[in-house]
Amino acid sequence: MVTAQVHYSAAAITNRGRKRPTNEDAFGYSVEHGIYVVCDGMGGAAAGEIASSLAVDEVMRLMTARAAGPAEAAALRAIQSANAAIHCRARRSARLSGMGTTLVSLVADEQRVWVLNVGDSRCYRLRAGELEQVTLDHSLVEEQVRMGQMTSDEALRSPLRNVITRALGTQPEVTADVFVMDAEPGDLFLLCSDGLTREVDDAHLLRLMDSERPLDELCQSLVCAANKCGGRDNITCVLVRVA
């Protein structure tokens, strides 16, 4: 049986939003090397910006230079290396102490896709008109929702909704969740920071994404929607289309 080859295209955007004075999000991607990543930094002063940029730079450096071999193992090594880089940098400076970042990454190797995440930046897949959240948030309220200790509505209103339970750089080691799936022509993947998903619910995301418009236009639409709904955080989107 001959398997049809798939092709990937991508676009990305980041926006400060309407309330934050700086942008602590970062992203990077290479269609050629099949790597796409979004990070959302945290920490005082400029620490969040430093953490997210360090993570993106390290993951992109290692994944674009990697030799042939298992993609999942390479991605996990890159995430561990990014975690170590942030943790070591924070230990050298009291000003940066405690800094960290979320990460969501997609690795594409022909028709197989690996999605890896730490924190509450998300990956969604749109397939045949249905939008699915691939990742699980590492946040206090979402973990309580999954355990049945809180409803989704209560989570949205909770004063603890910004508390994440896992991040790069805050500990010497980190564990990333990994989700593996086949890619099909017509699939559209969204990697995003929570500045989008806190403002735009899944039903609204579906209406915006279920379109044949160019990816850069779709990215702009997502940012505009988040800003219209409040824009209370930085907003970053990477869209990856399979053809």
Give the arrangement of secondary structure elements.
Layout: E1 8-15, E2 25-30, E3 35-42, H1 47-65, H2 71-91, E4 100-109, E5 112-118, E6 122-127, E7 130-133, H3 140-146, H4 152-157, E8 177-182, E9 188-192, H5 194-197, H6 202-209, H7 215-228, E10 235-242
Antiparallel strand pairs: 1-10, 2-3, 3-4, 4-5, 5-8, 6-7, 6-9, 9-10
Note down, in words, how this protein is organized.
With 243 residues, this protein is an alpha+beta fold. It has a domain at 17-184: Phosphatase 2c, domain 1, CATH 3.60.40.10. It is 33% helix and 28% strand. It is built from seven helices and ten strands. The protein has helices at residues 47-65, 71-91, 140-146, 152-157, 194-197, 202-209, 215-228, and strands at residues 8-15, 25-30, 35-42, 100-109, 112-118, 122-127, 130-133, 177-182, 188-192, 235-242. Strands 1-10-9-6-7 form a five-stranded antiparallel β-sheet. A hairpin with a 2-residue loop joins strand 4 and strand 5. Helix 1 runs antiparallel to helix 2. The longest helix is centred in the middle third of the chain and has 21 residues, at 71-91. The two termini are 20 Å apart.
| Order of secondary-structure elements | EEEHHEEEEHHEEHHHE
Q: Strand order within the widest sheet?
A: 1-10-9-6-7
Oligomeric state: single chain
Mean pLDDT, all residues: 93
Task: Report the β-strand fraction as a percent range.
Answer: 25-35%
- Separation, N- and C-terminal Cα atoms: 20 Å
Segments where pLDDT lies below 50 for 5+ residues?
Answer: none
CATH fold assignment of the domain at 17-184: Phosphatase 2c, domain 1
CATH class of the domain at 17-184: Alpha Beta
Named CATH architecture of the domain at 17-184: 4-Layer Sandwich
Tell me roughly what share of residues is in helical segments: 25-40%
**Estimated structural class:** alpha+beta
CATH superfamily of the domain at 17-184: PPM-type phosphatase domain
Note the total helix count: 7
User: In this structure, how is the largest beta sheet organized?
Assistant: 5 strands, antiparallel
What is the rounded Rg? 17 Å
User: What's the shape?
Assistant: globular
Give me the count of strands. Answer: 10
